[in-house]
Input
Amino acid sequence: MNRGYSPEEIVEKVKLPKRLADHPHLYELYGRVDWSVKSTFAGYMGWFDGDVARLSSISPKERAEKIIKLAGGIEVLIDSASQAMKKGELRWALELVSHAHKISSDNEDVKGMKRDIVGCRVGPSRVEFTQIESAPSSQHRLDTGSKVNEFTDTFYLRFLSQNIPTPTKCL
Output
């Protein structure tokens, strides 16, 4: 932080030593190291990451519209996300399809693709599992509080108790 690195740049530099990363009692169940790095940055520095473009940025929807136009249309963007997914570039695929979702949130293909990508990214982490449940869907969203925790805990335990193979499209 003192050297002017952004949260993303710090994440690339901070890694657990192998002996800690492989330790069975230090498994990333409720979070991940990269999330903790970003949280620490935000705790010390606040929301500003040092990029002046973010001080007065355009809205997420306007950004999505401009990115889609720059890509050559929503179909091209979705195709690029699909290609990235096939290459295993899941973070990039998710970023691309998220732009499409901001513009076409009712598009079932876009919602399905976003769910698929999040599903591929999910590991045994409880926090990542919650991403599956919060991925856009036509199903209801839960309110807040204990209902969410009860819902997530119940389904997470069911999820862990199953031997779910990695979807072919994730390989």
